[in-house]
């Protein structure tokens, strides 16, 4: 650390003060020994190791003190001066660090203490940098969460307002009796009813999303056969697949894959992925679910051979309210929460999910542990 002129002056003054204190201490010791020799010479002579030095002091001839005694006192003096100056120097280093900390605390979080201190002070500076970095990250995370909450409110407001406006509009027409006949009345009520159901789906999805996003959400774990579960789900979707002129099946080399998980939540995941495959696999002929097992995890992929998902959309598929379509129409895009809910449910089970898409195949792949770790 480079010292200022003022700090150097303080160190010089500290050195002179230390020398003065040492001389005063030596003189006091000289006086005390001299008095002891005068009052109790017999007792002093018993300490024969220091005899020569004591005899010299008794004669008030400091210069005649033995060389050993002079060297001993000189070493003590140098050590004392070095200790006090080093102590003062560390205090100056600490003052520099405190000054830098005050500067950082004023909002200059990108500032770093570049002065080289050496020794233990360098460890203190490194710890300060780690603390500042973690604080900045925490602040950025808090800002991101706040921004995320604002976006959530904005998106929910938008998605609720659209059907709500239609409901109010059609119910207003009915209230004002602005319909020509019963057929038109039924048309208005049907439209209002359809929009109300859309709002209900959105609210339920939003509730589910907020619930599964919490890491403390409990899982109702049961033992089950994943192959059998998927075959039952496929059977439920066969009618819809026929309407879309598509085939749907489960492909696996295993007769059974025993797992431990919350089946109700996983069914929600698979329902969403299969529905999306049927709905958005335009031009495709087949949807198939592949089940594999490796080590302590199961790998389940929901695949369709329809139109590929644009590459720019792949990384955003699991963002809440994101829809591949530019339009936010709920008739085609749903609530935009399905995949975000699916990702959160898979994460709750200690797994992960990702998507890939090309001209041949669009795949949603899940990695799930076969057995859940016990929570203490």
Structure description:
The protein has helices at about 5-40, 40-45, 50-60, 65-105, 120-175, 180-210, 225-245, 265-280, 310-315, 330-335, 340-350, and strands at about 220-225, 245-250, 260, 285-295, 295-305, 350-355, 360-370. The chain is α+β, with helices and mostly antiparallel strands and about 375 residues long. The strands form two sheets. Strands 2-4-5-7-6 form a five-stranded mixed sheet, with helices on one face. Helix 1 runs antiparallel to helix 4 and helix 8 (about 265-280) packs antiparallel against helix 11. Residues about 60-65 and about 325-335 have low confidence and may be disordered. Pfam families: HATPase_c (PF02518), HisKA (PF00512). It catalyses: ATP + protein L-histidine = ADP + protein N-phospho-L-histidine. Its EC number is 2.7.13.3. It is found in: Cell membrane.
List keywords for this structure.
alpha+beta; five-stranded mixed β-sheet; two-stranded antiparallel sheet; 12% strand; 61% helix; 376 residues; Helix Hairpins; Heat Shock Protein 90; single chain
Task: Give me the oligomer status.
Answer: single chain
Q: What is the name of the CATH superfamily of the largest domain?
A: Histidine kinase-like ATPase, C-terminal domain
Rg result: 41 Å
Order of helices and strands: HHHHHHEHEEHEEHHHEE
Q: Give the low-pLDDT segments.
A: 59-64, 326-333
Biggest sheet, in brief?
A: 5 strands, mixed
CATH topology-level fold name of the largest domain: Heat Shock Protein 90
Beta-strand fraction estimate: 5-15%
At the first level of CATH, the class of the largest domain is Alpha Beta
Helix content range: 55-70%
Structural class: alpha+beta
Which whole number gives the mean pLDDT?
A: 80
- Global outline: elongated
Helical segment count? 11
Distance between the ends? 50 Å
Biggest sheet strand line-up: 2-4-5-7-6
Named at the architecture level, the CATH assignment of the largest domain is 2-Layer Sandwich
Integer tally of domains? 3
Protein name: histidine kinase
Domain Histidine kinase: 155-372
GO molecular function, one term: kinase activity
Main location: membrane
């Amino acid at each position: 650390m480079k010292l200022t002129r003022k700090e150097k002056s303080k160190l010089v003054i500290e050195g002179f003060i230390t020398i003065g204190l040492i001389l005063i201490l030596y003189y006091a010791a000289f006086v005390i020994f001299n008095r002891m020799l005068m009052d109790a010479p017999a007792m002093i002579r018993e300490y024969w190791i220091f005899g020569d030095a004591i005899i010299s002091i008794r004669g008030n001839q400091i210069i005649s003190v033995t060389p050993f005694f002079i060297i001993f006192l000189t070493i003590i003096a140098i050590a004392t001066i070095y200790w006090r100056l080093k102590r003062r120097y560390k205090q100056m280093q600490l003052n520099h660090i405190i000054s830098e900390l005050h500067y950082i605390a004023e909002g200059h979080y990108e500032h770093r203490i570049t002065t080289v201190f050496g020794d233990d002070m360098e460890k203190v500076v490194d710890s300060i940098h780690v603390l500042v970095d973690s604080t900045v990250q925490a602040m950025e995370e808090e800002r991101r969460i706040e921004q995320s909450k604002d976006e959530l409110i904005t998106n929910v407001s938008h998605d609720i307002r659209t059907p709500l406006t239609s409901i109010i509009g059609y119910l207003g027409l009915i209230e004002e009796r602005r319909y020509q006949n019963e057929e038109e009345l039924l048309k208005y009520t049907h439209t209002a009813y359809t929009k109300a159901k859309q709002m209900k789906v959105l609210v339920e999805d939003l509730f589910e999303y907020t619930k599964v996003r919490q890491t403390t959400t409990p899982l109702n774990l049961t033992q089950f056969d994943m192959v059998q579960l998927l075959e039952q789900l496929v059977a439920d979707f066969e009618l819809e697949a026929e309407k879309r002129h598509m085939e749907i099946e489960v492909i696996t080399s295993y007769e059974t894959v025993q797992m431990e998980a919350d089946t109700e939540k996983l069914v929600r995941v698979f329902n969403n992925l299969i529905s999306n495959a049927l709905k958005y696999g335009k031009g495709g002929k087949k949807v198939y679910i592949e089940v594999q097992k490796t080590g302590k995890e199961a790998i389940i992929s929901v695949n369709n051979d329809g139109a590929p998902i644009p590459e720019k959309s792949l990384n955003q598929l699991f963002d809440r309210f994101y829809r591949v379509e530019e339009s936010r129409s709920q008739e085609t895009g749903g609530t935009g929460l399905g995949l975000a809910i699916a990702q959160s449910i898979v994460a709750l089970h200690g797994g992960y999910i990702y998507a890939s898409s090309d001209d041949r195949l669009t795949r949603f792949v899940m990695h799930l542990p076969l057995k859940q770790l016990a929570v203490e």
